[in-house]
């Protein structure tokens, strides 16, 4: 392991020690001679895992006491619907900031039980920027944003601060930088970008949103159902929750959000400086909105593509291909990606320039 520089956009790289410990748990969990995946989720040992995972989220993100933390299923894609159901108020209207494909999908889900209003969209420029200074209609029950646009490589740097409840899909940058949880009424994130394997979705929400929706909520989509049962209403995805807990332990041990944010900034600076310096490459997203998690860029000369791609293979750089809707390349630099991997990529970009000269 660690020989491959893994730039996969998600599922993605996790710390080596997490892979190791997580695999051990499949064969022999807590020296019980039983596998993690063959014991009851109500057993003392698994309940302790769920409790530690929730506690670590609270500790690492400094979640205030009037918030709850749950590990559910369905991915962020079900979160689109869950957010809408739980936040619909008397206007039965959600306001959406449409900054990418995921945001667009989130907006669509709201229309299944109420009105979905697009407050601003950057689709006119293939989502390469974050709209700002748009007006917020007072008749919306909540504002929904996507903190980081995984596909297009843009990231919200400053969040809305106002009276309207704020919901955020934080799938691809949660735990990557400091946030003020109290700015949000609801945060949700699929685990597989910065926290663990696919299969669990993290929800962080203000307890007082519960039970206030103006639409009837099916049991499994009602956050109240899960909050009342401490995230154990039905069988939780035990392995993804366990592996997420291990990643959170790793994050805490390595200095928490403060230190990882510095490291993530360092990685982003390395790649963006090279994209800007090297005449063969061009960044695709608006300078001030650039994502520290997913750097998107293209080659100016398509004829060099094969050469560059071969060089990437030779250096064991994997997963750099851009999303089909943007093309080019995308360097996803999630928490577990070492600075070293970015240095190797930057060297390859320099080498291509030298080759060409
Ligand atoms: C990956 C991603 C999703 C989709 O997550 P699923 O867990 O596959 O449903 C949604 N939003 C964002 C921002 C993502 O990066």
Question: How is this structure best summarized?
Answer:
The protein is an alpha/beta fold. The chain has helices at residues 16-27, 44-60, 75-87, 101-110, 223-228, 238-253, 256-277, 305-314, 339-356; strands spanning 5-6, 67-72, 93-98, 115-121, 142-146, 148-149, 154-155, 166-169, 186-190, 201-206, 281-283, 294-299, 317-318, 329-332. The chain has a seven-stranded mixed sheet, with helices on both faces.
Shape: globular
Tally of separate helices: 9
Whole-number mean pLDDT: 97
Radius of gyration: 21 Å
**The biggest beta sheet, please?**
7 strands, mixed
User: What is the count of β-strands?
Assistant: 14
Strand adjacency order, main sheet: 2-10-9-8-5-3-4
Share of helical residues: 25-40%
Beta-strand content: 15-25%
Structural classification: alpha/beta
Distance between the termini: 35 Å
Poorly predicted runs: none
Unique ligands:
pyridoxal-5'-phosphate
Series of secondary-structure elements, N-terminal to C-terminal: EHHEHEHEEEEEEEHHHEEHEEH
Task: Write up this protein.
The protein is of the alpha/beta class and 357 residues long. 35% of the residues lie in helices and 17% in strands. The protein is built from nine helices and 14 strands. The chain has a seven-stranded mixed beta sheet, with helices on both faces. A three-stranded antiparallel beta sheet has the order 11-12-14, with helices on one face. A two-stranded parallel sheet has the order 1-13. The protein is globular. The two termini are 35 Å apart. The mean pLDDT is 97. The site of pyridoxal-5'-phosphate (PLP) has 12 residues, from helix 3. Pyridoxal-5'-phosphate binds at residues 10, 75-77, 102, 146, 150, 169, 171-172, 190, 193.
